[in-house]
Structure formats: structure tokens, C-alpha cells
Design goal:
Elements (H helix, E strand, L loop, with lengths): L9 E2 L1 H8 L3 H8 L8 E3 L2 E5 H8 L18 H12 L18 H10 L2 H7 L4 H15 L5 H11 L2 H22 L6 H5 L7 H12 L5 H13 L10 H13 L8 E4 L6 H12 L8 E6 L4 H11 L5 E4 L16 E6 L29 H10 L1 E12 H5 L3 H12 L3 E6 L12 E7 L7 E6 L5 E3 L2 E3 L2 H17 L11 E5 H6 L6 H5 L6 H41 L8 E4 H4 E5 L3 H5 L2 E2 L4 E4 L4 E2 L2 E2 L7 E2 L1 H4 L12 E4 L8 E2 L8 E2 L3 E6 L9 H8 L2 H10 L1 E3 L1 E3 L2 H4 L3 E4 L2 H40 L13 E2 L1
Parallel strand pairs: 4-5, 4-7, 5-6, 7-8, 9-11, 18-24
Antiparallel strand pairs: 1-3, 2-3, 8-10, 9-10, 11-14, 12-13, 14-29, 15-28, 16-25, 17-21, 18-21, 19-20, 22-23, 22-25, 26-27
Length: 787
Amino acid sequence: MSIADHQDQLHSQAEIASLAGVSRATVTVWRRAPGFPSPERGGDSELFRRADVLAWMDERRVPRQLLRGDPDGTTYGVRARRALAERLPSDAGAPRPAVQNTRPGPRDADHVRELMGPLCDRVRGAGSRVDYVNLLASLHFLRRFEDSHWNDVVEVSRRGEGSDGAAALLRHIAAAVDEQLRLSGMRPAMRHALVRLEPRSYGDLRYVVHLVGELGPRAFDLMLDEYELLAGLDSGEFFTPRAVAELMVRIAEEDSADGAPLSVYDPYARGGELLAAATTWCARWGAAPHRIRVCGITHGRDTAPLATMNLTLQGARPSVFVSSGRPWAASAAFSGKQFSLVLSNPPFNMSDSTGEPRDEGSWPYGPPPLGNDNLAYVQHVLSSLAEGGVAAVIMPNKAGNSANRSERDIRRAMVERGVVKAVVALPDRLFSLTSVPVSVWFLVHPSQACDEILFLDARQVGVPVRGKRVLGVEDVRAVLDAYRGAGVHGGDREQSLAVPTALVTRKTVQARGWSFSPMDHIDAYRPLRSSVEAAYTEARFELELRKREVREADTAAASALERLEYEESLGGAAGRKTAVVLSDLCEIQAGPSYSLLKKHMTVIGGVPLVYPQNLRAGRIQELADDRHVTHEATRGLGRFLLRPGDIVCVRTGAMGSPALVRDVGVDWLMSTNVIRLRVSSKERAHAHPGYLAAYLGQPESVAWVRDRATATGAPSISAAALGNQPVLLPPYAEQQRVVEVLGALDAQSTAHSRLAAAVAATHAALVGRSMVSDPGEVPQPGPGRRS
């Protein structure tokens, strides 16, 4: 291993003095000299990047009276390099790379769930959950090393006790991690995060150390998932799902004829997930990750240490820089450097660009519009490609077909120079904090110019999970197979039902307004008989499934009604009703003021806000334009969060039926325009939330609210006025029976709605089936061809 493998390490002023063989006072004098590198803050100290300091010392000869046996003309840079060669760490001190082609196991998932359960709150105390996840990541990072770091942590954890012992252990962990981050060229960052934790007991902290010690090598992925969930990252910092990263790397691998890349770059590295996927690719090809240049720029000081730890655990020696500027600036890290593989998921604008072309900067494909960096990032990616290199960059779909003239001109130039290899449209809601639909653009160096562009429509792959769409192993394989098949079989290949494709010439792209949207190209081709036959078969299968569900729901609803009527016939079901008002049953909480929410609101992350328009058919429903409040701000708004069983009513606006909080809406935040009813603890044995929500949703109850809503610009009702609404309560057992029947009827209604949709789909599939000719009779498109 050479000194070049460690050029990005950071050194204190004392360490610089030791390497150069001078006093600290001499380094203090050097710092006043022209051109001496500027320090970077690392916690409470100032640190200097090794490469910059060595370059400066290379220009300074050691005075003869200070040579100490050195040859005449020796520079301080030569002396420092010689000292470094004697001190270089061996590979024995490197982390054990995660086992390739493995995923976190069930045991890892169980341990992480336990770590993120009640144990999290007991250990973090006044600290944040993000601070706690940083503790878990730090411990796991140390655990993967072969040297004494982890053993020291375990030993310290065994002999400590009390709050002083907990503080000492946290400081020890932070110091060990910060030292490793510094050796990787990353500013120390964990001390300030971990000292904010206040464990309730030393035993809890020691148990955390034990559980992390039991985790497997790929558990860091689970920790990144938790970090993203808890941190409320904004659009610039949400992480790229591992399946998307895998897909980008696997398709890039298909176009790399020379094997594993020698260098990898991400100009917006986030948590290092794309660079980590590339490192795994290198290992698959038999390349040692620590011999590959792995470089990245991140704009998040909190996520930068996670990126460095993530990559180091892969066996890489990453160079990850924190920057607040644009990567295409002349002074940016890696400016002018070129790489074999470039991967990126940059921040993007989600609407049509309206700005005029910018007049600064060098843009080989045309100046991007002011205020929109979508195609600025794309051009930076292309300029960072070495000859023979490949790239994959995530772009919002709008970037592919925007009407802005400068963006259209850029796309035209990219097509004419043949740098666009393929575009894959992905499903929406792939990311935790935004529903923006995106595509992956696969690009090549101009020396490998492409005459055709392959478009793939993968919007239908994946499965919905808790409001997101998640890609599985089979989904990645389906897209990869479609990509491979299109390249091998060309126009003779029938369409994939899940991932249709089209191989389009430059002339066809021009005819369609230089659009990079797969939908603009794939929809232009008529499906083959086999595709519509498959669609019809699927529709018929769905229809039979929904018919069976309806039969089951009809039977369950009829049975529930019969039971209720039978019990009523016995005279034991209908008890005496008690007249009360809402304020006797519920805690009534109006939503927070708009001024309290305004400064913390965002459209791309945080905790969702519940508005009147979210109240639909007695439930909370997600909307595409949900607005949110940052996680950080939510800590002070806990009394406005929703729990299961809460009833949400309209406070201001069109008065309608309230909604009962079930699965959707839990831990969401009330907006200013709603009021929450929560059955008080002393009344839970007398009032069932489901019954109360149904009662308040009746036309008579809604009319009562409308009559009392004041009309001052918009109808509104106060919490005090709502508290006077009368309610008739039967005995609790009868309420439960009514709720059970209502649930069965709701399920019956849902089943019939699904059946109606399946009937409509079958109708459309039948029409399509009757209108499509056999393959030989399908008119062939002009310049492009089906694939």
C-alpha cells in the first residue's frame, strides 16, 4: 500500500509538525505564509488535508542547518513522505468488507427492530433519534474492524456504571469513530452527535453495544433505512433505494466491455449508496475495492460520515468531500477529473423550466436554464466520463420532455452526439419523501456514440409498501432481462408485458420533439397479439378473483346482519341509550395555528399534515399533493399528532363527515383546518371510537354542525361549539356489535367497488383484444423499431 492510498487523510497542526520534523510554532508561522492550505473544522479542532499540505511543503526546502542527515536540497514534502512511509497503517487495521451478494438477514432485522423499539427512547433521552442511529452506525462500523477498536469498546462497556460511565463510553465510541473518519479524509463528526445522548441506565447502553455486536456485515443497510426514516431528509438528502442503485449498476455493467471500472464518481453522494453498489460490482469482477478510486461529493454534513462509513465497510478507501457549491464549479472537488463510471441521483426540479439560458459556465451541450440544474448535472456527469466510460443518472420525467427551449436544445445536442444509450422509466413513490416519477438516463462517452436509444417503461414493476413502491429482486431482474433482450433480439422480440421497450433512431427522437420520455416512444407502437391476449387473460383472472371476494364479503355481511337482528329479537341487544354531549366523552383539540406551522412546512419530506380534503368516506386518505412538517419541528407539536382511534372533523371549510384514524393517518399531524376528537381515558369503557365516528357521520349529525358553523368568509366551528353536539350512546356491548356489522358492510362495499373496476378493465381488455391484428399484419413504424 502506498502513500497515494491515503492522500485524503486529515492532520492536526501537531501532526504536521511531527511529519515535517519541526515545532508546532514553525507550523503556526507557515500558516501565515502565502498559499498555505486553509483548515477544515473537525469538531473543536482545525484539520488540514494531507495532499494539500504535502503539495505546499514540496515547494519548501529544508534549511541546511536543519537537514539532520538529509541530502542537500531535501524538501519538507520529501521528509514528510518518508515519515509517512514508516507509519502507514497495514491492511490488518482495515474493516472487514461486507460479504458480497448478501442481504441483511432475518436476525439482523429482528435486532435492528429491537434496537429501534423502546430501547431507542431509553438510551437517547433528550437526544434525537438521529443521534441514536448515529450511535448504532458508529458501533457497527467499529465492530467490522479487525483491530482493537471494538474490543476496547466492549471492555469499556463492561467496567463502567452510572451516568458518568455512560458519558465516558459515548465519548470513547465517538473518539474511535472520529479517528477512523479522519484517516479516511472525513472531518470528525460523531462527538457532538453522541454526547447529546442521555441513557436512562448504563445497562441499556451496554445492551445496545451487545446487540450491535451480534449484527451481520450487511446490517448497515438497515441502519441507513432507519436514518432516512427518522431524519426527515429534504429532497437533497433522501437516499436512493438499494434496488434502484443495483439496477443502475447492473445495466451500466452491461455496457462496460472492459470489466470493472478503475474509478467511480458520484457528484451528489447522499449516503454513498450508489458508490457502495458500484463497489460491490467491482468485487463481483474480482477487483479489490481498495484499489478503485471511489470519489463523491455530498452536501449533507450529517450524511457525509454515514457515506464514508458505508463505503469503508465495503472495503473501499473513499474520498468523500462535503461541499455547499455546485460540482461543476472550477474550484469544486474533482473538477476536471474523469472516471470510468459515474452514478448520481442529484436534486432535481419537478416542474417545467421557464428560465432563460444561463450565461456563465462551460456547457458543451448548451447552457441550461436559470433556476433549474437538472441538465446542468447531466452535463457535469458527461464531462466527468473518461473515454470508454458509462454513466447512469436519475432525472425527473419532466427533464425528458420539458418544453423549455434551452433544455430541448441540450437534449437535441445529446442525441446528435450519440451520448444517450437508454432511458428507463421507473414507478413513482420510490423515495420515502417524494412521489415524483423519475427515469434513469444511461449515458456513454461521445467516443462510443449510439445511433439508437433504447426506451424501457418499468412504471408497473414493484409493489406498494406503506405508501411507497418497493422494487424486489424479481423486479430488477425483469428490467435487466428486458434491457438485455432488446439488445440481443432487436425487432424480432415480442414486448415484455411488465417492461415494454422501444429501440428508436435519432430521427424518430427528433420527430417527437427530442423527448427522452419512454412513454412518448413506447406508446407509439401497437402491441402484439400475445401482449393483448396476456392482458385479457390477466383481466379475466382479476375479474374472477374480485367476484370471489364479493361472494365472501356478501356472505360475511349477511351473517353479521343476521346475528345483530337475532340478538335484537331476543330483546337483549337494544339497551337504553344515554344522552350526552361530545365534551363529556372526548378530549377536543383544534389544529395548530397556521403561523406555528408555516415556517416548518415542506412539500417533500417530514410528517404529513391532515387537511379536510384528506377526510374521505370516513377514513384518512393519502393525496398526491400532501404537505408536510419537518420531523425536527414535530417534536414540539406532539399534542397535535394523531393516534389510532382518533376522530378527525372539519374545523374550517366545507363541513362533511369526520374520519376515523386507522392505519393511514397514524402519527400524522393535524392541520389548522381540522379538529381532533379523542375518547378520554375515563370514557373508553363507555364510548367506542368506531361507533362515535359513525354516529357523527350521519346526515343529521353533519347538518347539526353545518347549522352552527359561523360563516365568516368560510364556514368554521370552534372546539367549544363542537363539544356541545349531542350524542345518543347505547350500552358499550351494543356499540361493539354495531361497529362489527359496519365493518362487514364497509368490506362489502369495498369488494363491490373492486369488482366494478375489474369489470371495466375486462371490458377494455376485450375491446383491445378484438382490435389488434396478428404480428404480421401490424403496420411497422418508420424510423424506429419495436424491441
